[in-house]
Write a structure and sequence with these properties.
Oligomer: single chain
Helix content: over 70%
Radius of gyration: 20 Å
Largest sheet: none
Order of helices and strands: HHHHHHHHH
Number of strands: 0
Strand content: under 5%
Length: 192
Amino acid sequence: MASRQDWLRAAVQVFGRDGLEGVRVDPLARALGVTKGSFYWHFRDRADLLEALIDLWEEETTWLITQASEASGPYDRLLRFFQLISPARNYPSDREMFAWGRRSAQVRARANAVELKRVGFIEEQLLATGVSAPTAARRAEIAYLATLGWVERRGRSEAMDDSLGEFAEHLFPLMLAASKRSRSVTRARLKA
């Protein structure tokens, strides 16, 4: 008999490949080589499985923030956050979760909450590097949107062969360098 984790792993794979419509009990049972009865030992129904997928997706962000927070400084925490994101980890696809959120107000609300946590973490780290509050808020959004764009393009283009961590290693120095330049310009204007 397949375990709850087996069912979730299979559902995550199908969700990432075929979207919400692909997550069905019969095909999952066939893929796992078990009967549908195994499913009902672990889940009440398909809705219960889908709820578990959302829970798992939310847990990923909590795990990422917790793990990244263990790094020594804000810059290292930012890099660590993005280095930990890997297609090899078995979490539901952001792309498919956001697509689902466009059709479901409940999923949209939960996705928005996850995104606020992610952007908030980035903003906190930028603030800790000395970036001003309004600038940190704007740059956190920019960094988040840039990484979403990277994830989307990586999902459809073989030309993208670097990891998200490698992408972040280029993104954050640019964001922080811009802060240093703007502080230098501000200081120069104050001296004039």
